[in-house]
Design brief:
heterodimer, A: alpha+beta, 5-stranded mixed beta sheet, 5-stranded antiparallel beta sheet, 14 strands, 38% helix, globular, B: alpha+beta, 7-stranded antiparallel beta sheet, 3 helices
């Protein structure tokens, strides 16, 4: 059986993925850790979230809790870093800015990944163009990348996997025979969009490679999986089903929470943390041009502390008018916090969820909305733009506090922020 | 605390009232109005290629001869290639250092700007040495 892409003009999509991104950022101003095993830990120094090639070889697994790999780290002199999101964010923005110059159709998929459309480039020039992108990002930012180029997003992900193992870092997959050859070697669990559950189902039915999935019958896929499953199959056949924009389906809710580095007892400290969570959640939904109708605040103590009673509670405040204004959201969240706060407990975690998110543009013009609406809207824009330009939390709301003693544990923090004059990289001469 | 937020709301109102540079009405409008809002922006002068430009603070006195002093800020552009006598950041022996790049005929090397000849690092012999970026400006505080 063969599937051909009918008369339509072919799309070309490149997936650019930064190699061991957080590690690469740490290496930028620290040449001592180039070619050495390096690991970056998640918030509160919890788990391994980025590994250098050398660290992978030693056997350190992605997502493993730090305490479990401490022995390996000591024996192999692995360099450990707490995550430095200010630095990673700035470097990421630089990479994305450079990418934008190569194509005006772009989807930033995550902090270290982006899809761009290369449909305007002739097929025989794709490899060269990919290499040019890769070299420029490397020279301008110091960040190595891998680039996969193909006719659909799913195939560009496959190409990217292959590119990671190539010295040139670029793989173009647009020849049917070569695609099939590669798909035969590509394990089903590595296919984009095939999660653990789906992977199990496929393997149970003897579909263990991407090639087998590509050639499965349409009826079987539709019967056994969902729409997304069917889309993946089509995409493997080179028929684009996940376009650059539409995959960015906007979220229905947005949650920001954090465990405290040191347990927190006082209402003031909790207020600070809740305010900060509100600020980042509000910034996120504003970034997607969304508004919320309900704010949930939650706090809890450690469930593992056997000496103290466990306490966990949450409170949802519904808003009269859907909004994404930080100030309104914070006052609602604080109101909720006051309702659930109990004195005498040592809190381990707090969080804020904004739910019932809708498109800000779709919200009908509210006659009741006072003049303030537009006024503070422009304030919010000014805050976001300043924070984008000068780094997170340049401008904040006074209640978010400045001391932040509840802040997370960062014992191996590199302290560099390329977007803040107070933490610029320092060079001894 | 909610009181504080409300207080801030008041300030926002104050802040966002539009500000006109000249009065509307009769008379010849100031010809300077069009120019008043264009503040000098040092970014446009000092930074040619933003995504490739990093600002690095230096500590130490070894580069006084080229005009770099303790505590100065260096504007470093990673996208450009050094010319002869460019001040560069280089990775030498696993350390980032500030050096002067010199190209004489076919040979290129790095020096500290001092008169000491032994101070040369030959770039063609030592493949480990990598130019990290080119220093385009130094910001030096006088008082």
């Amino acid at each position: 059986m063969s599937y051909t892409n009918y008369s339509r003009k072919k799309d070309t999509i490149a997936l650019i993925d930064c190699n061991s991104f957080y590690v690469s950022c740490e290496r930028l101003f620290n040449p001592k850790i180039i070619n050495k095993p390096v690991v970056v830990l998640s918030n509160n120094d919890g788990c391994v979230i980025s590994r250098s090639t050398e660290a992978k070889k030693i056997g350190i697994k992605m997502g493993e809790p730090y305490f479990k790999v401490k022995d390996l780290v000591r024996k192999n002199k692995v360099h450990i870093f707490s995550s430095n999101y200010a630095l990673y964010g700035d470097i990421s923005r630089r990479v994305m800015k450079i990418l934008k110059e190569f194509s005006d159709k772009m989807e930033v998929y995550s902090i270290d990944e982006a899809f761009i459309s290369l449909s305007f480039i002739e097929d025989q020039r794709l490899d060269e163009y990919g290499k040019e992108i890769r070299e420029r990002i490397l020279k301008w930012t110091g960040i190595p990348t891998s680039i996969g180029i193909a006719n659909t997003k799913t195939l560009s992900k496959v190409a990217n996997h292959i590119a990671k193992k190539k010295k040139t870092g670029v793989k173009v997959l647009n020849n049917d025979a070569i695609i099939d050859e590669e798909l035969k070697r590509f394990h089903i669990s590595n296919v984009w969009g095939v999660g653990k559950q789906l992977s199990k189902l496929y393997i149970k039915n003897d579909i263990d490679t991407a090639y087998k999935l590509k050639n499965i019958s349409n009826t079987w896929v539709k019967k056994s999986t969902n729409v997304l499953g069917a889309k993946t199959v089509m995409e493997l056949r080179g028929i684009p089903c996940v376009s650059l924009e539409t995959l960015e389906t906007k979220r229905k809710s947005c949650c920001v929470s954090r465990s405290f580095g040191k347990k927190v007892e006082s209402m003031d400290k909790l207020k600070e943390s809740v305010t900060t969570h509100c600020l980042s959640a509000a910034e996120k939904i504003r970034g997607d041009d969304q508004v919320t109708k309900s704010v949930t605040v939650f706090i809890r103590t450690s469930p593992f502390d056997r000496h103290k009673e466990y306490y966990s509670n949450s409170k949802t405040i519904d808003l009269p008018i859907a909004t994404n204004n930080s100030i309104e959201l914070i006052s609602a969240a604080i109101e909720g916090l006051k309702a659930i706060y109990k004195y005498g407990y040592f809190y381990q975690k707090s969080g804020v969820t904004l739910s019932q998110l809708t498109d800000a543009k779709k919200e009908e013009f509210n006659l009741l909305a006072p003049l303030l609406e537009t006024k503070s809207k422009s304030l919010m824009q000014a805050i976001d733009q300043t924070n984008i330009k000068y780094g997170r939390n340049s401008i904040s709301i006074a209640q978010a506090g400045t001391g932040n003693s509840w802040k997370m544990k960062r014992e191996h923090f590199s302290k560099i922020d390329t977007a803040s004059f107070n933490h610029l990289p320092m060079l001894k001469i | 605390m909610i009181g504080v937020i409300k207080e801030q709301n008041k300030n926002i109102m104050k802040l966002t009232i539009p500000f006109y540079l000249h009065k509307a009405g009769a008379g010849f409008p100031s010809p300077a109005t069009d120019y008043i809002e264009d503040d000098l922006d040092l970014n446009t002068h000092l930074i040619n290629n933003a995504p490739a430009t990093f600002i690095i603070r230096v500590q130490g006195k070894s580069m006084r001869d080229v005009g770099i002093y303790d505590g100065d800020l260096l504007i470093v552009d990673k996208s450009i290639n050094p010319k002869s006598f460019s001040t560069v950041i280089a990775n030498v022996n696993e350390e980032l250092v500030v050096k002067t790049f010199i190209k004489e005929k076919e040979i290129s090397y790095l020096t500290s700007g001092s008169k000491n000849i032994n101070d040369k690092i030959n770039l063609d012999e030592d493949q480990e040495v990598v130019i990290w970026g080119v220093v385009t400006y130094v910001i030096h505080k006088l008082q």
